[in-house]
Amino acid sequence: MSLNTENWKEFLLYDYFNIIPGKYHYPEEYEEGKTPYYSASNENNGIGSYIDLAPDFEGNCIVTGKVGCTAFYAPEPFCATSDVNIFIPKFKMNSRIGLFVAQVINFNENYKWAYGRQCRVGNSKKIVIKLPATKDGEPDWAFMDNYIKTLNSNPITTKNRGGVSISYSWCE
């Protein structure tokens, strides 16, 4: 499957995602647990730790750090620091579409943002990226889904720093 970007169109992400900030939790509020806690980390898929609080956000969304605007797909319910922005889809998104969009955000936005120039919610609402488009001029979600399907045939597995094995079967 070819990834020909010549016919891609520009789209304002805010037209397709509600964008909200993460929520700060003081360290004395939580202990180690099972809820992913997204931070401005570029490691471990953006997960800084696992905590024992109930999730603040549903999964199936995109999380970006304010410093660097590094984007990750968040498959399951989670908590997130105030150092990140949450992109909640206004359309029916699956993991493959989330992974595709996150990587396009990374390709187009990472170089623009730094500690002294953070990508806050207001900035995120102005992000325009190029995506595959249908003949009607809408994002071609089916193409994105099918393209990611062609990239791997086995579930992705990884091991985080805490020694907990995670299987990403949501990529299947």
Question: What key phrases describe this protein's structure?
Answer:
172 residues, 11 strands, four-stranded antiparallel sheet, alpha+beta
Structural class of the helix and strand makeup? Answer: alpha+beta
| Element pattern in H and E | EEEEEEEEHHEHEE
DSSP strand tally: 11
How much of the polypeptide forms β-strand, as a percent range? 25-35%
The residue ranges in which pLDDT falls below 50 over 5 or more consecutive positions are none
- Give the C-alpha Rg: 16 Å
Helix content: 10-25%
Overall morphology: globular
End-to-end gap: 18 Å
- Assembly classification: single chain
Number of helices: 3
Strand order of the largest sheet: 2-8-5-6
Largest pleated sheet: 4 strands, antiparallel
Write down the overall mean pLDDT: 87
